[in-house]
Amino acid sequence: MLSERQLFILQVLIDDYIQHVEPVGSRTISKREDVHFSPATIRNELADLEDLGFLEKTHTSSGRIPSEKGYRFYVDHLLSPTILTTADIFNIQALFNEKLEETERIFEQSAKILSELTNYTSIILGPEAIETTLKHIQLIPLGSQQAVAIFVTSTGHVENRHVILPEGIAPEEIEKLVNILNEKLAGVPLAELHKKIRDELNVVFRKYLKNHQQASLFIDDIFKWSNKDKVFFGGKTKMLYQPEFRDVEKVRILLDALEEKTVIEQLLTANNDGITVTIGQENQVEAVKNCSLIKASYSFHGKHIGTISLIGPTRMEYKRVIGLLDTISKEFTNLFNARF
């Protein structure tokens, strides 16, 4: 157990280091107006906190910086989320007051704003396919062989795909095909579309369409998009703004990792609702072990459907980031429950 004095000094040191990115010594702490301990007393407490593993030195003669254990204790026991500034609240409210029709646009804008507000890299995972259903399909011919297929989901996402129309299928057959799709697939979760087509619709195609085999291949092709997770990034190169990432090779490894779908799945899988903070070596992905990852889930009718996250150095502004993510995740939850 740490004493009240040790708790106070640890919090002061971490707050100072997060703000100034410079090792903190006893004299720096003693000069604060709210500190009433002598430099010698502070020096002894800092030495004890280092022995306990909460602090470390970059050089033998330098001040101290937080260790990952120190950050973990800070997040779990000393931190209170910052009350958002008027400017932060204005930016968030402006986003959700835009009444954007496409949910995808809200994700894109949210990722961008989060990154701009924090100077960290933001990642938003859109609603999981298991919770998102197909609402409507439309096929607009662009000529004799080309068309645009438009898919609208229950979350407001609109997917457009240029498609090649199969040869030998008359326009009236295409119209009949679209009618069948809208009748049979409306309200079906995206994750179940391919199974529904395979198990039920192919039988219907054989019954009502002359060229049912070509129709089946055509449908398999245009629905490939439904298997893709929707991931939205903001400020992928923001790490370059952080002093800890002046090593370009370190940033390159991180950016390469963020291009991998399996890495994103590992990072953004939410085991529970609320805010989750993983620091340094706690992260399972090797490329992120020099970073902190803070993520918040949002829900639809009480079920988790997506994740909002920020990646930054272990010297993160935890208070502010947690406040921002908590606010935006609640706005996302309110948005989905109000719309759908």
TrEMBL record:
Heat-inducible transcription repressor HrcA C-terminal domain spans which residues? 104-322
Q: Keywords of this protein's UniProt record, alphabetized? A: Repressor, Stress response, Transcription, Transcription regulation
Signal peptide boundaries: none
Gene3D superfamilies noted in UniProt? 3.30.450.40, Heat-inducible transcription repressor hrca homolog, domain 3, Winged helix-like DNA-binding domain superfamily/Winged helix DNA-binding domain
Q: Pfam family example for this protein?
A: HrcA
Q: Which InterPro entries match?
A: GAF-like_dom_sf, HrcA, HrcA_C, WH-like_DNA-bd_sf, WH_DNA-bd_sf, WHTH_transcript_rep_HrcA_IDD
Q: Which family does it belong to?
A: Belongs to the HrcA family.
Q: Which NCBIfam families match?
A: hrcA (TIGR00331)
Known role:
Negative regulator of class I heat shock genes (grpE-dnaK-dnaJ and groELS operons). Prevents heat-shock induction of these operons.
Q: What is this protein called?
A: Heat-inducible transcription repressor HrcA
Which source organism does the UniProt entry give? Answer: Fictibacillus terranigra
Top-level taxonomy? Bacteria, Bacillati, Bacillota, Bacilli, Bacillales
